[in-house]
Amino acid sequence: MSAGPDVPPVSEALLRPVRPGNPFEDTVERLLQTIRLGVLEPGESLPPERELAARLGVSRDTVREAIKSLADAGYLVSRRGRYGGTFLADELPRHTGNTPGVSRAEIDDALRLREILEVGAARMAASRTLTAAEREVLWSRLADVRGASPDDYRRLDSRLHLAIAEAAGSPSLVPLVAENRMRLNALLDQIPLLPRNIAHSDEQHEAIVVAILAADGEGAAAAMRAHVAGSAALLHGFLD
């Protein structure tokens, strides 16, 4: 597809099809890359939703949710009427730009370590014969995070992930996951909570716990890997 007259050619490379598994989070990341790399100038309009959906290989609903989330976060402004559309805000939020004191390498290190630790923890937890108490803890932690308020979400999300690490049956694993979660939460606290991402995370959490309780090691690992990738997409989008 060739770039239209109002779409800079560089956006052809940035607005490319997203990976399967996390369409919303990857769409947000792609749009943020376009914004933060200066492809769009303040006040300039995004391509129409239909064109974005075709370029990114996602539904228009996904594009609409991503645009709404970025508008709520202060990056975009939607206007109605004959000259309406979605425009880059004249002044971007403070999230934009490199996070003070945190390099791309440090973000990548925390994310890679998380994948190693938590994907392995989910697989190992599914391989064990869990006690009734261990199974109840997983269900309870899952219910807690699903009902969490925005102010309490990070804490209850962390408790669920620590419960999964505990279910893996390796006491040495839990403090490693806890330390890495502290690093990740410090990064996540610097980006806005997006309701659509929270809803998607809830679905992924349930898939992880269900797979563990069904003793499906590969399913639990795959669900956790997809979950980790979704968080990584948002962190890279907002903080890189």
Write the layout of secondary structure elements.
Elements (H helix, E strand, L loop, with lengths): L10 H4 L8 H14 L12 H8 L3 H13 L3 E4 L5 E4 L15 H24 L4 H15 L6 H15 L5 H16 L6 H19 L3 H23 L1
Antiparallel strand pairs: 1-2
Helix pairs in contact: 2-4, 2-10, 3-4, 5-7, 5-8, 5-9, 5-10, 6-7, 6-9, 7-8, 9-10
Fold and architecture overview:
The chain is mainly alpha-helical and 240 residues long. It folds into two domains: 11-88, Winged helix-like DNA-binding domain superfamily/Winged helix DNA-binding domain (Arc Repressor Mutant, subunit A, Orthogonal Bundle); 104-239, GntR ligand-binding domain-like (Four Helix Bundle (Hemerythrin (Met), subunit A), Up-down Bundle), CATH 1.20.120.530. The chain is 63% helix and 3% strand. It has ten helices and two strands. Strands 1-2 form a two-stranded antiparallel ribbon. Helix 5 packs across helix 7 (153-167), helix 6 (132-146) runs antiparallel to helix 7 (153-167) and helix 7 (153-167) runs antiparallel to helix 8. The relative contact order is 0.14. Mean pLDDT is 88; it is low at 1-10.
